Structures
1.
Amino acid sequence: MTKMVVTPWEVSGDIDYEKLIKEFGTQHLTDELIKKLEKEAGSSHFMLRRKVFFSHRDLDVALKEYDEGKPIALYTGRGPSGKTHLGHMLPWVFTKYLQDALGANLYFQITDDEKFLCKPELSKEKTKTWAYDNALDFIALGFNPKKTFIIVDTDYAKTLYNMAIQIAKKVTASSAKAVFGFTNETNIGMMFWPAMQAAPCFLPSVLEKRNVRTLIPAAIDQDPYWRIARDVAPKLGYPKTTAIHSIFLPSLAGPGKMSTSVGQNTTIFTTDTPEQVEEKIMKYAFSGGRGSIKEHREKGGVPEVDVSYQWLRIMFEPDDKKLKEIYEDYKSGKMLTGELKAILIEKIQKFLENHKKERERARKNLDKFILKD
Ligand code: TYM
């Protein structure tokens, strides 16, 4: 076992999601609550059925209010430090379901300021360029331009900064240190920065001039921000933000989240070619197969540790029946690792073929989504 680290800036080691629920103080996403969400949404989603989303903060409160006809807005985002990879897209795929199902406004924050501050190698110009590039990946998923508002921090600074200072005034250095692990070596920009990610939690209330509760779909690494936002909400007279947390799409190499900093070869980017997808999965996807075909046929594979199977389960095979067949065939030894990998390769190649077309179309529509002040 390698030591688990989960912060907004680093995720590594063997991740124990039960332990995270305890450490972060979040709540389990129970079957009962999933049913409630599906009822309000009017449809089910495989990421709920499979507990890819597994934890939450006050989702029950958000659903109750939604049921009573009170306003709700969705909020999620991206830190533009480089190309978008498939892991980043996981919460956005689910966000698309939520927006369609709940008909809610959606705010998408792109934190070029954060990435400039926390990555010594990145210039302000570079993070801004990545911001507008990454926005294309988000728009490509088909969000409703009338209800979706993208904020690029340094270009929406007038509104955000004015909100962030109100939040920052209520957060002490000792609590920021405890929540984010800041030290005396952390630059002062980063010390202030969490107030900028907390600000959009309340932006819908400010823009609509009434109380609008936000619901944030994101992986659990972003949760520390919501802790800060929820602490200050009553002090500033806003409803506490609510959240629904996903697990991580693992790196092709296995444990930890997929992340560019871990390695280019164990990460699949939205701009990868079909050949790159095939090569990466064939060469690097950690296998739950046995040492020889003979042994594999006898003992069967281990889907629980097989990254190709996990990617299908988490994101790329929405059909429960098909997934079950793959599970059983692999576990019994009928399906070999190469065959399992071929299924995943085809799925991702198809997904990316369509995504790249939509990404190009998004260039023309970018302006319709960007919120200006
Ligand atoms: P960033 O760019 O690190 O990640 C963008 C979103 O992707 C999620 N994520 C993953 N999900 C599943 N599997 C993975 N391997 C994986 N890697 C990343 C993150 O949880 C996130 O939802 N500071 C933020 C940007 C931000 C934001 C937000 C994110 C601003 N406001 C509100 C979520 C919600 C960041 O750097 O995200």
2.
Amino acid sequence: MRLVLFGPQGAGKGTQALNISQKYSIPAISTGDIFRWAIKGGTSLGRQVQEYVDEGELVPDALTIKVITERLGAADVQGGFLLDGFPRTMEQAKALDGVLRERGTELDGALVIEVPEEVSLRRLLGRLSCSQCGRNYHVDLPPTVDWTCDTCGGQVVKRVDDVQEEKIRHRLELYHQQTEPLKAYYKERALLRQVEGQGTPEEVFDRVRAAL
Ligand code: AP5
Ligand code: MG
């Protein structure tokens, strides 16, 4: 199964990506995680993307497309994948179609999880994330041991782009301007699956499964 997953910030993409990856045995690839790991590791990619990520701006298309094209060449994605947070612009969506076409494959579905803006804000302002594996927590539902990931033992932190409400609102604005138009793009090709993102993570996952 080859899937893309998008939706406003805080919709629960990362949370559901983990569930989908386990249920369907496909790797979940998050461009946000790739960029944060590169920044943490001080790599050349990290230096190129840090300012965009910290400020909540989109990383330029050419660089993002290059990163995903390379990642899609790896052995573990040949049987399927879930892209969390890519594509995020029309240019990225068209580039992905081109890469898949060249490899003789195509997408099986485009899942969008949607929540109202107040829910996005509440979730992101309370979010805690593992800096090692990317697993998400919330101040209301923290890891069992403070600041330590239940899954990998990594350090749980607050993401820099989750601290200021203004920056979160700016990311949401970019979503509506640049990413939301992808709904029409995928709907036209009968790939779009829309899921309501409110409710418990388990309730949302039931809807995701039904949609897939
Ligand atoms: P990215 O890491 O993708 O961040 P984002 O789009 O801002 O989305 P989030 O990760 O904030 O939200 P989410 O939907 O994953 O929510 P989550 O599951 O964590 O991107 C970061 C940056 O990288 C971008 O700003 C940009 O700079 C760059 N970038 C990445 N991809 C790019 C691209 N393609 N092109 C250009 N630039 C790119 O859930 C949020 C919180 O809510 C958590 O605390 C979670 O525990 C909680 N929660 C989840 N589900 C529920 C539920 N059902 N009920 C209650 N709480 C819940
Ligand atoms: Mg995420």
3.
Amino acid sequence: MTARMYYDADVDPTALAGQTGAVIGYGSQGHAHAQNLRDSGVEVIVGLAKGSKSRALAADAGFRVENVAAAVRAADVVVLLVPDTAQKAVYDAEIAPNLRDGQLLMFAHGFNIRFGRVQPPPSIDVGMVAPKGPGHLLRSVYTAGGGVPALFAVEQDASGTARARVLAYARALGATRAGVLETTFAEETETDLFGEQALLCGGVSALVKAAFETLVEAGYQPELAYFETMHELKLIVDLMYRGGLNFMRFSVSDTAEYGDYVSGPRVTEGAKAAMKDVLADIQSGAFAQRWIAVQEAGGDEFRQLRGRDREHQIEQVGAALRAQMPFLNPVVVREGEAQAAASAPAVATGSPK
Ligand code: NAD
Ligand code: MG
């Protein structure tokens, strides 16, 4: 089965002509949606809480900034880009009471619809454009003339224009320059959570740490172990990004390629069964329930886990080595804030949520 891809030429941008977008939240995704939409000719209002620290940023970028309720009332399209764990509260208090028939409520990730946290009335359109990349790239790639690929979905079509408007939204973000494909809120949410847990964030981090620890515990130098297990990973991933596993294997030595075939599967023995368990917990809602409960209890477990890994030896060793490589544009993360240590533009910060 081959998915149908949609590109610029397949999408009518006039489906959003004369419409106003309210971008709620001005973080990683919010700033990129607001700026790309505006540059594509869509009128944008940024909706933020009264005391929000993002207000100054959005105003400096030239946006009209309103309270969330006022932004929703003034808009035809409302896109909810506050953190997933905050969406229910913002939706219930500020958005739901101000919705009117025929408005389009947009998401960049299906979590709150898939797990029933946000329940829009049947009289509005509900859609999603989920960029397959961090918000800062969504903006920088657009400015450079390209686009970040995305998934789109229509959950409700009350107006009869939902699909056309969602596609036009994807085009205004620049996503149809790279290609977008249709999905459902359930498919996007489940595959997104699975990807970040089993592979992109969780699986890769666990493999890197395990390989680093194996070398250090065997008496090898930690600095060498860092270069081998974390620094080189990017070089390998860049090859895969450009030409798949085939190009990576074409570029590495025959010895590396042979070792890949015979030892890779030894390292991941049992991994696929574990991945199936991870997927089952996502599909059943067990993961979502656990994560929501942690947040509602104040987030202690989350902070503990974060603190534990932040102190890992690979992070200490890596920070010192990266500081000597300013051409990498190294970033130092403290208390949840990312700060570019070098002055080069920070285009690739943010997480692949
Ligand atoms: P974020 O953490 O960058 O923050 C969003 C913004 O929301 C903040 O900057 C602030 O302006 C506002 N905000 C924060 N807490 C709030 C609160 N309690 N109440 C009201 N407003 C608050 O968020 P994000 O990573 O851009 O995520 C937004 C949506 O985009 C989520 O649905 C996420 O899953 C999705 N998404 C994110 C990425 C990514 O690259 N980060 C990629 C694809 C999809
Ligand atoms: Mg993702």
4.
Amino acid sequence: MYFDTHAHYDDEAFDEDRYELIEEMHKNGVDNIINIATDMESCKTTMALAQKYDFIYAAVGVHPHEVKDMKEEDINKITEYCKYDKIVAVGEIGLDFHYDFSDRDTQRYWFAKQLEMAEKVDLPVIIHSREATRECYEIIKKSNVRKGVIHAFSSSTEVAKEYVKLGFYIGIGGVLTFKNAKKTVEVVENIPMDKILIETDSPYLSPVPVRGHRNNSQNLQYVVRKISEIKQISVENVCEITRKNALTIFFKK
Ligand code: NI
């Protein structure tokens, strides 16, 4: 039923019940998950999850928060990881000018480097863009990468359309169900169904009515229901189309 294209089950928030939870979710309609790395260490824990479960895939890369610790040799390591067949994307990579956990020039440098690497290994990218909309778009446009997803999309419809034109998908998650999500609702209204991916960002960004609690992929039911209301198509149809989209972007060479 559900294909969660963005989750972090190697996060310490799942230390107590990781495997029970994953197995229970899989029995309850979570067919596939892409687990996303955020730093060099989690590249390894992410790959371990993909190795343990046939229905889990992995993305490797370093999050803008963590690029302050990146070294040149890490690019070679990630390039090597990308050769494993269950690695379906480079991510999450991008810019975060909200928290500025890594200084901005450092973020810009490693974002461009990781895009270049994604192009070389011919994998789609998973983009984290927060309060850096214009610059993030410009850096991607300057690169030759033309396949990927803008994860937890939070910008305007206009920007979403520009990304779609560039070949990108729009990642929609729990935020869509928030009371103040007018902008995201408008994005879903205006972007064709075949450009939308569903995601949780577990353990973060839980949808209403479980907002504030640890997120998991079963909560995609709330996101899917909201999309079905907006698009006026059935829940089954939303699941089917978003699954097809995930297969197209991550599994079609
Ligand atoms: Ni994430």
